[in-house]
Amino acid sequence: MSVFILLLVVVIVIFAVKDIRLNLVSRPTFKMFKRVLPPLSQTEREAMEAGDVWWDGELFSGNPDWQVLHSYPKPELSEKERAFLDNEVETLLAMLDDYQIVQKDKDLPAEVWDYLKTQGFFAMIIPEKFGGRQFSAIANSTIVAKIATKSLTAAVTVMVPNSLGPGELLLHYGTKEQQERWLPSLANGKDVPCFALTGPEAGSDAGSIPDSGVVCKGEFEGKEVLGLRLNWSKRYITLAPVATVLGLAFKMYDPDGLLGKHKELGITCALIPTDHPGVETGERHLPLNMAFMNGTTYGKDVFIPLDWIIGGQQGAGRGWRMLVECLSAGRGISLPALSSATGHLCSRMTSAYATVRQQFGVSIGQFEGVQEALGRIGGLTYSLEACRLMTAGAIDLKLSPSVVTAIAKYHMTEMGRTVMNDAMDIHSGKGIQVGPNNYLAHGYMGIPVSITVEGANILTRNLMIFGQGATRCHPFVLKEMEAAAMEDDDLALKEFDSLLLQHIIFAATNAGMAFVHGLTCSYFAKSPVCGATATYYKQLGRMSRGLAFSTDVAMLVLGGELKRKEMISARLGDVLSHLYLASCVLKRFEDEGRQQADLPFVKYAVELSLFEIGQAFDGFFKNFSNPVVNFILKRIVFPLGNHYQRPSDEIAQEICEHMTQPGVFRNRLTHLCHVDENAGTGVMENAFMAMHDTSAAFKRLKKWQREGTLNRNHDIETAINSAREKQLITDEQAEKLHGANNLRKQAIAVDNYKAGEL
């Protein structure tokens, strides 16, 4: 005991006396930190510094303030946004025949293009003073999601000008003259924009683009001016085949020093009319049979004046920061909207199909195998919508949370893929026969497109979420890196010493609290609410402690090597991601008034996230290179073992029960799903309602067949007629049953084509 007390006194003296701490702890630690600090390229540094830290910072702190989460305003549409959704959007949806668009025309009809341009669908982010709609991020997201449940081609066509593109870049970085020149014509549809970033050798690694712009003198409008000689080759550019104005990213060089001493100015963005001499557009790709305009653009020795650079000459070399910040908005609005639309459509139509489709004399929704998949569809749809709302809400707070939007992009597109796969499995043969009545096929084809764009999902998960999150969201690491980069060594050491002491206290606190919460099953952890969801706040708080401590240990042990240990770092990124997803679910539950009918969906979503957190930690511990550290970490985070389980079968069955009952809850869960009375969605919904209304009567028919009152071998139509003849049912009841059965057969039918028609 005396030895322990002596050691404790020594430790206190070392850390309490500044000169001793500087020489024995801070100075050697500082040298080690600078040695293991991962090298950052200029583009990595700019990406790291761009954007805002938001709720992700709370989750990384180890002690999230749940009151802060609840204080964020509930995302809601304004009256003018609601009116647009109820009028212009509904009019657009009525104009769309997605089978004709995708399978036959490979393009939107001319009248649809005109309607999109004249009604401001391409101008949702442009301020009213320039003729735009000036809608919020949540309105932008909701409109795109609603359109996507009818036509993915139309949704992508609408979303691109309102995310990464000339409009977004001009609003944030354009000169006054550029804004006045371009924004009105973009708002009224006279100009159609695209943005060219990706090329044959630069995809997710956009910083490696080979496209160049060399400062030189050239002729423009009959005069010799200072400008750029551009050469580029771009692909995968949405709207490029029909664009009238091209946003272009390239690397800018000034070999003759015409602008100053710097010869390599870095990535730059410019706006170029597509009818400018030397600009080539028009070629199309065919992305998995989708009909939205996507193609290439080329230019060789194209001369443009310097004032075509976005932001003017002052924008030279600032393109990468522009792109990183604007890509963040795209990831937070457009792709989450498409993924949420997948959930709304699949939930409504698959719950209907599971009710209407019968096998072995009963609805397939009564089979537990189908219930497992349908429960997953419902639980993930609730989570998708929760994440869409919260992430778009952050952008409406005038934030650009780069880590949060990367989480939303990766996990929502992957959840959308899972939901669509489950929907296809339940629909089975009906899901794979392409035709006017198949409401899933085009969405299924388009899923990999969402997975690929705005950064391939593999790299988003393995490099961006934790790579940026660990540095940006950590309360001390970025500041310590900045201290290490200071030129004055004495000042740098002084700054680092202050940060190091705080960092040590931070790590020790998180380790201690994670261990205590693990031993007590989070009994003493804080929760802002009582009731069924209180335990979830406590468990998430505990896992936040575990993440913060594990991150500190990983960075201490692996140093710069952690950047290359993608499998290790991605698992910590998964922990952060599922902390965020679960937070979104709990926030939605509170915002919507703690509806009791929502509880099974909340439980499913949060328990699934906790399970995934546990799996991610298990993978992290198992594969951590140092076995001693591995053992210590595991015993601190999970001293009694990892007991997180997947959501129970009972919860999945509760979800199925809610989803297969028409009414307010089903409408709320799937409120963005457009049901077209003249298409497959309307046929399926009408059959679902009819079968639900007659379910009791059909059960009586089955009972009479089992008892022998009616012939058990008769099909449904014959049984109805026989029951009427025996006066078991009235003529009116028989007519209603025949009507419901006819709708059922129409709903489960698939499209056929005459010989030679295809």
From TrEMBL:
The keyword Flavoprotein applies. Keywords: FAD, Flavoprotein, Oxidoreductase. Residues 194-292 form the Acyl-CoA oxidase/dehydrogenase middle domain. The keyword Transmembrane does not apply. It catalyses: a long-chain 2,3-saturated fatty acyl-CoA + oxidized [electron-transfer flavoprotein] + H(+) = a long-chain (2E)-enoyl-CoA + reduced [electron-transfer flavoprotein]; a medium-chain 2,3-saturated fatty acyl-CoA + oxidized [electron-transfer flavoprotein] + H(+) = a medium-chain (2E)-enoyl-CoA + reduced [electron-transfer flavoprotein]. Pathway: Lipid metabolism; fatty acid beta-oxidation. Pfam families: ACDH_C, Acyl-CoA_dh_1, Acyl-CoA_dh_M, Acyl-CoA_dh_N. Its cofactor is FAD. Transmembrane segments: none annotated. Residues 77-190 form the Acyl-CoA dehydrogenase/oxidase N-terminal domain. It comes from the Bacteria. Residues 471-753 form the Acyl-CoA dehydrogenase C-terminal bacterial-type domain. Its EC number is 1.3.8.7, 1.3.8.8. Residues 317-462 form the Acyl-CoA dehydrogenase/oxidase C-terminal domain. Belongs to the acyl-CoA dehydrogenase family. PANTHER family: ACYL-COENZYME A DEHYDROGENASE, MEDIUM-CHAIN SPECIFIC ACYL-COA DEHYDROGENASE, MITOCHONDRIAL-RELATED. This is Acyl-coenzyme A dehydrogenase. It comes from Pseudoalteromonas prydzensis.
